[in-house]
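Deviation from plan, reported transparently: pyridoxal-5'-phosphate complex.
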Amino acid sequence: MSVLSDRIAGCLDSASLVRKMFEEGARLRAEFGADDVCDFSLGNPHLEPPSEFKDQLRELATDPAPGAHRYMHTSGYPHAREAVACSVSQREGVEVPSSHVVMATGAACGLNIVLHALLNPGEEVIILAPIFPEYRFYIFHSGGECRIVPSKPDFDIDLEALAEAISEKTRAIIINSPHNPTGRVYPEESIDGLTKLLKEKSDELGRPIVLIADEPYRRLVYDGVEVAPVLPRYESTILVASFSKDLGLAGERIGYVAAHPSFPTELIEGISFCLRTLGFVNAPGLMQRVIAEVMDASVDLPAYKHNRDLFYEGLTEIGYEVVKPEGAFYLFPKTPLEDDRVFCKRLMNERVLAVPGSGFAAPGHMRISYAVKPEVIEKALPRFKTAFENP
Ligand code: PLP
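Because the crystal trials were delayed, the predicted structure below was used instead.
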């Protein structure tokens, strides 16, 4: 009998694909040496935070002012919330007051506290396949049900499929652009179509369907592509973002939730309550103070673009079918074999790690993270070729 609750034991079973990749990676490194293994399985930003971040961190860490390490207002330091509110208002073109910002322990925390605040037992949250697998567990922990809706073959939103999936049970939909695992940035027309559909469906239901825009990759876009702002298009929108990727701070756990100003303050009180009582208490204090000063700085974006181009061009030249990613740091090619798990095993024989698309509810694909040094991509391309030619 498991020492775990049935709920959690069940989660571990269904999360086992990604876990398995992790274990396989460790096995390969032990057998062949770390340098010979090309690991594209983890979305762990490899670029260092910008120098502005390190300078500010040094300065604030030695600030002698008393009280800097105490508890604070659950939603965060007023000046950090104000800085986020200014930045969000500027880029969205909607005035978001600091009262509608909650500092969070990364986007993962932001999503969890929003879902906890919104969901009644059994209410549905729609997520779009290919999915970010963790959403299923965030929704599960919040007492909701997950409804997966497929996207178009080019990974754009399939509005018809979405319209069919919305029912009286639908409480919210999560979108993520730039998208993990495909790198897709939804075009403006798709966001227009989505928000129009949500308005119509909300009117039919007599209550708003909440649109949660999960945007931790928002500033990781290439070739001048822009992420269409959602707040001006749909009032019942809650933005969730973090500095994990654009400032390279994934381990420091700092992000935020910003709600449309039309929401009553009750929503923010509920989200703050969940932040506190789920045990986060407040977002890390030192990080709040640092990012308040440096949130416009960025990791070396051209380095990610270089990797994207190198990998995309290399794979398409070999013959892989890939939708060109416009942002984030992932590629999501079709696998030459229909069975993505078998093909990823084949790649493992070449000491290359990619995650089967089945783990993202999109079989027949594989996810490749290019948050790695370009040398690893160069080393891996001939191996991708061998596996493609002899699958
Ligand atoms: N949402 C998506 C789509 C992600 O890919 C990630 C992390 O990889 C997160 C949320 C969580 O981000 P954070 O590290 O800021 O919690």
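The chain has two domains: 6-49+299-389, 64-291. We consider this an acceptable substitute for the interim report.
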